[in-house]
Amino acid sequence: MEDTTPIPTGDLLIFLAQRVDDNRTDLISRYQQALRETLFANRAEVRPNMLKNIAADEAEALLSFLHQSALSGAERGKQLYQTGLGEQAVLRLGEVTRHFFLTHLECEQFASMLETVHAYQETVIQGFVQGIEKNHLIELERTRNALQGGSS
Asked: Average pLDDT of each block of 10 consecutive residues along the chain (152 residues)?
């Protein structure tokens, strides 16, 4: 039987990272399924053979966030945008992450876990939006250059 003592907040990230490590195959499988479900909602062509790698990368990014290592959630969001995922797929990955932890944690840990997952997803979405904004600026610059080149 598992210990249901509330986890001190200082140890929460380590605990959540251990849950991801212990159940990585399950998490990647859940991510793959979510990506399959949103395959046609992406903004660019994402082929089915890419889903396993995207799912594995998402699990690694979550671990990096929990270990507070180099890759930030914002960087992950930018990567997801560059991969060609759409908004629906990114939001669905967040739902899967929450559901994964709800499945693998005790009730006493839900509130702290949800706050942590929310913080991760918020930074991922911010990075995704930054990717969109950067792409729009690049496209505006291309259009401006094309118009200026055409009017000479």
From this structure: 47 88 96 94 90 95 83 87 94 94 81 86 94 92 86 54
- Biggest alpha carbon–alpha carbon distance for the chain: 77
For 101-124, b where at least 16 C-beta lie within 10 A, e where not — what string?
beebbeeebeebbeebbeebbebb
Residue 89 sits in a domain whose CATH number is: 1.10.490
Number of domains in the chain: 1
- Give pTM, 2 decimals: 0.80
Q: Show the tokens assigned to 85.
A: 């995922």
Q: Does residue 2 form part of some domain?
A: no
Residue-range definition of the domain harbouring residue 75: 9-150
Q: Is residue 77 part of a domain?
A: yes
